[in-house]
Amino acid sequence: MWGRLPAHSLSGMEQRSPGSAGPCRPQPAVECRRVQNPPKIAIPRPQRRLYPPCCFRGFVTVLGTMPSNKSVSDAPITQFMNCRILKEQELQSEDLWVREGTILNPEKLFFDEKGYADTQIDCQGSIIAPGFIDVQINGGYGIDFSLATDDVKGGVSLVAKKILAHGVTSFCPTLVTSPPHIYHKVLPGISVQNGGAEGAGVLGVHLEGPFISREKKGAHPEQCLRSFQAGGFQDLLDTYGSLDNVALVTLAPEMPRSQEVIRELVRRGVTVSLGHSVSDLSQAEEAVQQGATFITHLFNAMLPFHHRDPGIVGLLTSDQLPPGRSVYYGMIADGIHTNPAALRIAHRAHPTGLVLVTDAIPAMGLPPGKHTLGQQVIEIQGLNAYVAGTKTLCGSIATMDMCVRHFLQASGCTVEAALEAASLHPAQLLGVSDRKGTLHYGSDADRGDIIVLGVGNQCDSVSLEV
Amino acid sequence: MRLVILDEYNLASEWAAKYIRNRIVQFMPGPDNFFTLGLPTGSTPLGCYKKLIEYHTSGDLCFKYVKTFNMDEYVGLPRDHPESYHSYMWNNFFKHIDIDPANVHILDGNAPDLQKECEAFEQKIAEAGGIDLFVGGIGPDGHIAFNEPGSSLVSRTRVKTLAKDTIVANARFFGNDMSKVPTMTLTVGVGTVMDAREVMILITGAHKAFALYKAIEEGVNHMWTVSAFQQHPRTIFVCDEDATLELRVKTVKYFKGLMHVHNKLVDPLHSMKDYTN
């Protein structure tokens, strides 16, 4: 199941069929559409011009299996031309070929099948990148994943559809600390599924809590916190009900019996993240040795960095990790929840582990003004969401494309690195980089989602201009 | 024989590309009238391919009605190996132009019956009506395609065992591991290239100077297989200054004096745009 790039989403790109225009393949458009008044927003560093997000220019869900040899398929082939594709840590001036949602190896197509593209799309210099993956998103557009509504599926679908516009093609709906009956009701309603034109794919649920530290509970409700001291892993199972559609569990490693729980979760294929914790470094290292691989929103809800005990933050440069293993860490790069200097410290210490997350609350995607969410009235002003009538921040409402842009600007990293922090790294974290987070073709890395990022003076696209 | 001497590699590459462009454009290829081009691999023709791609991008040259035949391919090397000539042609030329894959012919070094593959290749060339322009390069030992020293000058497409020199020279492409270097190839024969209506040979760099001398100033000799083209009615050698180092001053001066004549072959430069109407 995949979504062929719908023609209507390609406004501004030229579609054409080879052979339909004269003896030669038509040449790249000489006349580019010029925007009369390109929108401008105030950006502190003018050398990196960034345009406001409107919508992505197109979306192709790329699923299916690459035929290895001598395949016969009559399905039409689309060739994205004149683009830069993110591959092997760099933007390469290469075309991207897609058939039935599969990224094709054009060389095999050429020599084995003697095939060529049915449709060529001039991307006018756009970047084509793997779709973003958000492993921590609590809701959006008024939908709260932690609420046991009658239509959990519908809520997830709505968010899945809306976040496509921000480049997110896969996500992990995240539930904050809740009473067991909420887990029992909500979890069966969210199933792992592939994405498509109808919405981003669900990679599994992220359960953040309730096995977290009382001291670092953050906004999680204290009365719902639990421990697995009595029954160990069985306590966790009783609380959640089922782990069938769970991809990620955030817990505090200093809790008694956490080691056996981490071991069992990892054995069952669930990624374990450390967070909302007062753990010291040695406890955190022990958790990683048991199989934990992620840190939930680094710096937030953990002990602050101390040079004699750097705490969980110290995992970024720890020398006590099992050989060949590395730790990934989530970063809320909305410019508010993490100071840019802290962002840079983390990035420079461990660039390949950085995973951008939105940690978005249900207010994400709502227009400015007052909104009622659950029992709370909140007010959105610019990029901040406040408890109405106060200046108390109530969570992140940044979208993933905003986070990528902010990270790019704040860290001074390359466009490639910024895009990979939102695609390749989360895919590696969840063990799905064989089909997500990359634009590889071939037998074992042939599937993924792609997004097109416009560049230059085109107002109707998300722009990341170098 | 024509000998065209340019100051340096880039100019020689451009001259060769212009010549190919003019020949294709003036041929006015069409659905019933394909231009047939023989193509080499290696480092020498890279600059020429780049230029041809530029001409295609600018709309001056189109390969829709061009058929290509490559000179050679390694035996037993996976087709998608980065050093295979399939990979070379795809990455350096075909993926950038509008050629129909059905019109591209490269010998299959993994064919179950290599002899049959070679015969079929000759057959395909014949069916295409022969080759209009065969572009080639040479090795420092004067081999054209993989027709190593000692090859018959009337040879046809066949399996060929590489000379030790060539295997050693190729080791750098295979991690300097001699055991990984292919030792056999499929190659068109000297006779196959001789049958082309026109042959253009690119020779650049001081390390090929002795081969150029052997090619044009000494007699026809199967130890320097490229010398066979002295007997071809239409051969152009395109070289840079470095490649002329072993030639007699008299030879170089004579051909340089003819440059104003030879340049008429590429000036004016023709374009497909002029023929679309």
Give me a quick take on this structure.
Chain A is 19% helix and 22% strand. Chain A has 466 residues and is an alpha/beta fold.
The number of distinct structural domains of chain A comes to 2
Q: What's the CATH class of the largest domain in chain A, please?
A: Alpha Beta
Class by alpha and beta content of chain B: alpha/beta
What would you say the CATH architecture of the largest domain in chain A is?
Alpha-Beta Barrel
Largest interface: A-B, 19 and 23 residues
The domain count of chain B comes to 1
Task: Summarize the helices and strands and which ones pair or pack.
The complex is a heterodimer of chains A (466) and B (277).
Chain A: E1 14-16, E2 59-62, E3 77-81, E4 84-87, E5 90-92, E6 96-99, E7 102-104, H1 106-112, E8 119-122, E9 127-130, E10 132-137, E11 139-140, E12 143-144, H2 152-163, E13 168-175, H3 180-186, E14 201-202, E15 205-208, H4 233-240, E16 246-251, H5 258-267, E17 271-274, H6 281-290, E18 294-295, E19 328-332, H7 340-349, E20 354-357, E21 369-373, E22 376-381, E23 384-387, E24 393-396, H8 400-411, H9 415-421, H10 424-429, E25 448-453
Parallel strand pairs in A: 3-8, 4-9, 10-13, 13-14, 13-15, 15-16, 16-17, 17-18, 18-19, 19-20
Antiparallel strand pairs in A: 1-8, 2-25, 3-6, 4-5, 6-7, 9-25, 11-12, 21-22, 22-23, 23-24
Helix pairs in contact in A: 8-9
Chain B: E1 2-6, H1 9-27, E2 35-39, H2 46-57, E3 66-70, E4 72-74, H3 85-92, E5 104-105, H4 114-127, E6 133-137, E7 158-161, H5 164-170, E8 184-187, H6 190-194, E9 199-203, H7 209-216, E10 235-240, H8 249-257, H9 259-262
Parallel strand pairs in B: 1-10, 2-3, 2-6, 3-5, 6-9, 9-10
Antiparallel strand pairs in B: 4-8, 7-8
Helix pairs in contact in B: 1-2
